[in-house]
Structures are given as structure tokens and as C-alpha cells.
Design goal:
This protein is an all-beta fold and 73 residues long. The chain is built from no helices and five strands.
């Protein structure tokens, strides 16, 4: 079980255009580790950006470059 906090609503400028997102975050037990997700509001909260900060301070970030869905048709 993981508890995420709501960090706010943000607009991301991605390769496929601007997308409104909810930014949520989960901090690890040590306080140095953190997982963040940006969920696309208009795409049924599909994760479009993810960032993982490890305990040693290294960061891994992924950002969607396109979205293809039948949900908005």
C-alpha cells in the first residue's frame, strides 16, 4: 500500500502539445527517495510523466512523446 500526496495541477508542454495534469508524489521512508507522477486529466488520468529520485540522489525521468487513444473519439 502506498500513500500519494496531491502536489497540484500543472500544465506540461510535451512533444504532442500542452496537457493538463495532476501532479502526485510519494516519499520513501528515508525522505531522500521520492516517486512522482503527472496524470493527464483529459486522458482519464493516464501517466504522462514519471520521475523517480533514488536514495543516493540520482534521478530517472520519463516523459510521454505521444498519446494514441480511442477514448476521446
Amino acid at each position: 500500500e502506498y500513500s500519494y500526496s496531491f502536489e497540484g495541477e500543472e500544465t506540461l508542454n510535451a512533444e504532442f502539445g500542452s496537457v493538463r495534469t495532476w501532479h502526485i508524489a510519494h516519499a520513501g521512508q528515508t525522505g531522500h527517495e521520492k516517486t512522482e507522477l503527472w496524470l493527464a486529466i483529459d486522458y482519464h488520468y493516464l501517466p504522462v510523466k514519471m520521475r523517480k529520485t533514488e536514495e543516493d540522489g540520482s534521478v530517472i525521468e520519463q516523459l510521454a512523446t505521444s498519446i494514441s487513444t480511442d477514448l476521446l473519439k
